[in-house]
Amino acid sequence: MTLIRRSLLAAPLAAIGRRELARFDDLLQQRIELTSLLLDLLRDVPQATPLPQPPGQRWNHYAPLLRLNVGHPRSFAEHLARTGVPNSTGSFGLVPLDQRPMFTTDMPACITTATFLDGILAVVLTHDDDVHRIRDYAETITQEVTRWAST
């Protein structure tokens, strides 16, 4: 029965994939523009500074990365998620591999990774985002980081 279900889904999923692949260049360009806009709008927010792009590498533009310079950055990311800014740590609970239940007994602690992840805001962009939504994200981040820093 599993084999039948997989074959029934394969054709529609392949059709969706082919359609999306045909639009890949346009979708990537949109992500590049939206990422650039978000980072530009947050340029003067010292509590959320963009991570530098490593030389010779390109970002995937699916999650602009910012270093959070606030107290309790993981809690702040969770707060941002509640205010409508989707991010990998606050919305999806991103943690190092050693903190995932299936690996906790087999791996040494990844303290450096945990510290790094806790200080990063990766704003998750989707194909539904547009200039208006990105401006809303930037405004929310700017307002909330100022409030957070004053508490």
Feature tags:
3 strands; 3-stranded antiparallel beta sheet; 151 residues; Aspartate Aminotransferase, domain 1; mainly alpha; 5 helices; globular
How does this structure look, described?
This protein has one domain (2-150): Aspartate Aminotransferase, domain 1 (Alpha-Beta Complex), CATH 3.90.1150.10. The chain contains 5 helices and 3 strands; from the N terminus they run H-H-E-E-H-H-E-H. 51% of the residues lie in helices and 7% in strands. The chain is mainly alpha-helical and 151 residues long. Helix 2 (24-41) runs parallel beside helix 5. The N and C termini lie far apart (57 Å). Strands 1-2-3 form a 3-stranded antiparallel sheet.
Helix coverage percent of residues? 40-55%
Helix-strand pattern: HHEEHHEH
Average pLDDT confidence is 85
Largest beta sheet, briefly?
Answer: 3 strands, antiparallel
Q: Order of strands side by side in the largest beta sheet?
A: 1-2-3
User: What overall form do the CA principal axes indicate?
Assistant: globular
CATH class: Alpha Beta
Low-confidence stretches: none
Give the count of helical stretches. 5
Report Rg. 18 Å
CATH level 4 superfamily? Aspartate Aminotransferase, domain 1
Using the coordinates shown, work out and report the CATH topology.
Aspartate Aminotransferase, domain 1
Q: What is the structural class? A: mainly alpha
Estimate the strand proportion.
Answer: 5-15%
In the CATH hierarchy, the architecture is Alpha-Beta Complex
Q: How many domain units?
A: 1
Number of strands: 3
Oligomer status: single chain
